[in-house]
Amino acid sequence: MAGARNEWINGYLEAILDAGGDAATMRKTNNDHPGGNSRLMKLSKFHDEKEMKAHGVDDCDDDQKEFKRAQAEAEAQSYSSTSTTNKLFSATSYFVEEVVNSFDESDLHRTWVKVIATRNTRERSNRLENLCWRIWHLARKKKQIAWDDAQRLARRRAEREQGRNDAADDLSELSEGEKEPGDATPSESAKHISRINSDMQMWSDEEKPRRLYIVLISMHGLVRGDNMELGRDSDTGGQVKYVVELARALANTKGVYRVDLLTRQITSPEVDSNYGEPIEMLSYPQDGSGSCGAYVIRIPCGPPDKYIPKESLWPYVPEFVDGALNHIVNMARALGEQVNGGKPTWPYVIHGHYADAGEVAAQLSGALDVPMVLTGHSLGRNKFEQLLKQGRLSREDINSTYKILRRIEAEELGLDAAQMVVTSTRQEIEEQWGLYDGFDVKLERKLRVRRRRGVSCMGRYMPRTVVIPPGMDFSYVTAQDSSEDDLKTLIGSDRTPKKVQLPPIWSEIMRFFTNPHKPAILALSRPDPKKNVTTLLKAFGECQPLRELANMILILGNRDDIEEMSTSPSVVLTNVLKLIDKYDLYGQVAYPKHHKQSEVPDIYRLAAKTKGVFINPALVEPFGLTLIEAAAYGLPSVATKNGGPVDILKALNNGLLVDPHDQKAITDALLKLLADKNLWNECRKNGLKNIHHFAWPEHCRNYLSQVDHCRNRHPMTRLGIPSIHEEPMSESLKEVEDLSLRFSIEGDFKPGCELDAATRQKKLIETITLMSSPSGSPSINYSPGRRQMLFVIAADCYNSNGESTGHIQDIIKNVLHAAGLSLGLGKAGFVLLTGSSLSETMEALRLGPVNAEDFDAIICNSGSEMYYPWKDMVADMDYEAHVEYRWPGENIRSMVLKLARIDDESNDDIVEFGKASGSKCYSYSIKPGIKIRKVDTLRQKLRMRGFRCNLVYTRAASRLNVVPLFASRMQAMRYLSVRWGIDISKLVVIVGEQGDTDYEQLLGGLHKTLIIRGVVEHGSEQLLREEDNLKREDLVPFESPNIHFLEESYEAQHILAALDGLGVK
Question: In this structure, how many other beta carbons lie within 10 angstroms of the beta carbon of residue 839?
């Protein structure tokens, strides 16, 4: 933005000069007399203090006082120079560069409008002075933010580099012979965008039929199949259109049986009632049967009567996870009955779109052991860096507005869990995902090649990134779009149509032109400074040969009154009109005010009929969908060399790349394509020939091929789910009096040998299991039977030394009593969740009037081990295999010790605690009072080295448990929900008001949460995250009706009353 071309800035500068004019005489006088400068400074200081008092700013802050002093000194120095230069000082000399080069003019403009509306000279001068102060203050603030940001980025770069170096110590460098085909530099890359490895089989329609179930997740925005409200708000845009079309296209691909697109259910009166419908069919194949096809499934989460923007959805993500899990389990059962002989049909892949859905997909992937794919669409860390560079908002302001740190952590978790990350361009991989702790391009390549060669990756993992451009529907492209007829065959020189009716938008555009038959240069974008339309217009206006050869069509959104538009598009459009006037482009440039979305194809057709060119001159273009659309109508393209167009034009081979900052490069490229008709025709034919690379069928084949290649995780065959009609066992069968059952267990014992109740129950379960086994031999069964409700006790009751207190026994006793009164015996099950080891847990239980056999399951070591007391304390080996995903094992033991310590701590301050460790949990004992890294910092450092795991401080921060990525107390509850066939909403979790560092994960979701105050003396949460990280309110919906607080008295009758308040009956 140049000051000379911005009217209000000109006025602002002139006004400041005028305001300083009254001081000219005094300046001259002082310059003509010795000591004038010092007298002026004193006078200025006195005058400033007087003005401050007069305007009620006597108690102004240090910034304003410093501004006054700086202004006085600058003026004094300037006055001393006027004797030789004969120039008068202007306050603008101190501020103008900051105004013109550093700030969005919107804030200043509002102040300026107030200034020019002031008629009183003195008041006007005071306002101008205040405006100057504001600019100066903003400049200092911006510089401070920029400095802090630069320091933070430098520290992070150093940490990332150290992490990569640590990884390199374990992983040898690749020789040229070990490099994988397709890993060449961009200049050496293959012509096509997608990279298909030689050992990867392309998805073929000729293969035997598959019955795949695919789950897509797009959580935010307004999602429906027809009449999509694109552009209604920032949450309902291209992503919504993409996921709906992807669901339809996948469902139409041979081998795919069903596609579910999960999104949030909204019953708010603010939006259409369609968004409150639980299910919407998107497509149903003609030869389909049963539940096949594509569907939108709307999952309730958060307040149902509110439309919540994506920045405020974060606390409700656990609810969405639980609702989605219930739906997938039910669908797996139903599809299994239809197509899989009664065995559950688990999703082939779960694909999360955007950060929120990425976190949902990661949690579901962990709960079901199903492969996960992630598409970021736009990335939080990239946005965060851009906002910091602008300098208008501090780190804290950005986070409070956009919840950006919560979003970034969700994206990092998505990287932890994903088998594959889908991007539109290579630029997105290198310049955006490359910013994340959990991804490094070079390290990912090394690990991938080592896996292919069967070489150990030393416990390190990176998701595979693949470039798969968005698919497009070209069914609307007609045969006439491929014809080579020009505009003269349709309209005469007098603009009258020749026996055909022209689209209305053609007439609207052609009315701008003196000669509509000239080739048209078409630019189509929103009026955004980043789209760089003004540079294009300057290039056109300053190149006479181009003006003589072509017209220009600018489609810049829709407008009624520019002055009523928001600042950014208003400024762009105003500059466009000024440039048209400056270069006298009337009759050569069309800039219609309105167009419909349905008219966009006709706009492309018009440019093609004139044998014109499409141009995308954006400073950076993440993808460039319009380039593909233009190619479908036979338009060659000129496009920015920054971003997605590089890959698109490489695949289409139908245009030229340019530097968007270089006006001459832009005009040269346009002239080359327009003047050389042979080149134009060649580019046209190439574009029409190659657009099939971007069609939905090609996209789906590529997508499924890549998923099949990366898919090395499968649901455990023993992750069965009870059928709906299954008869209950265990406690729920205590009243069974079937004599055949009685005889079958009594026949093995001598008469007179009485069995106690527990032994009789155990034998009864084993007998039923034996009878139900087809082979007649007992099968492994980890289910205690059908329960109406599960009570999960997860209160972390420790004293300052990390020892269990008596509160835990009292809580267990009272919960057992209250649950029995509420539901009756046999209908309630009980689970104990703890960060302690099994031996420590059993020792704590023995200290009180509680038996381990009272529990259906005991989950120890922060969710990494699961035991069944009613099965002789048998460990669930299926669960151990279930949580093994990306577990680094022995490779992480020494690395944790190295990274957890603060530099100046001694080696014995943190040591491995072997008594509590297991195959899936490494426990470390921490000396009281030492400095140790918090969970978020330690996890970041491990991610930078390629390690994926879960970290939990427990036992009043005296113990660190390092467990597999998806071993957690919350995920253990979801596992039991699936295995035992209990809806998560039927779980009641009892916790204290603080606890281990995984405490927050236990609060959100569909389960009921009872928080008992005063029972936890010392928690570990001080070691959870740094102060400048995300906040608890971004994670926990404390206003949820599923959360209830109980004061320090927690007798059985109080717990019973609390359960009644939660609706547990």
Answer: 11
